[in-house]
């Protein structure tokens, strides 16, 4: 199977894109300041540990709630009528189970105020703020703040990716061996086939890392630091901002079947040019081996 490039998405009105980039960048800078000032310093009352019967990784913090509320207020003022979907609240801004956008919504915002919350709670320097504007074709604008490295990454459809204002573009000469591939656990732990995926990559002299932030995992591919990122499951707000970066940097984005997609559902692979087929093979062989052993459903 040969990996094909994704189809270009239609252009969006320039004034809207420019304003969305400016507002998203401002929010990302503000969030970065808050995260660096508070990480690892919360009291017990600031932190809600995961429910015993739910995900062991779904920490909730006052910082996350505060940042999302602020993001929602600013976006409501600047872009009235465009719904916001996020990690901590539902589309109406109420605490509860987040909902997915309706099919008839032209634009929507997706925000993850603290992507990598467990790392944030522990004071480990690997978490991010992620925000994206999307339409039915995928990300229109995306920003990811990497507070500990004082970096703001931003991208807009057909306008490229920038890191602290400097253009970023991947090239076709990235070495596909002796590299790093990122993945992330699901809400309940390692996805079935993780061990086989790691073994497949290792046999090809590639190391797999689980670092705890889907947004930063994909961003490492957009920057050329990692050759690929494979996410078995995720929410839209986990990945939308970083996918905007990856697409505009020239990375390949595929769904779990290997089909090109600007916003895959039910599993995604992001890879530097030339590495997508190899990483897809490790992933698909791991899934097939699990199926053949009766451990997953097709």
From TrEMBL:
Its EC number is 3.1.3.25. CDD domains: IMPase_like (cd01637). Gene3D superfamilies: 3.40.190.80, Fructose-1,6-Bisphosphatase, subunit A, domain 1. It holds the Pfam family Inositol_P. Mg(2+) binds at residues 87, 112, 115, 238. It is an enzyme of class 3 (hydrolase). This is inositol-phosphate phosphatase. GO terms for molecular function: inositol monophosphate 1-phosphatase activity; metal ion binding. Its cofactor is Mg(2+).
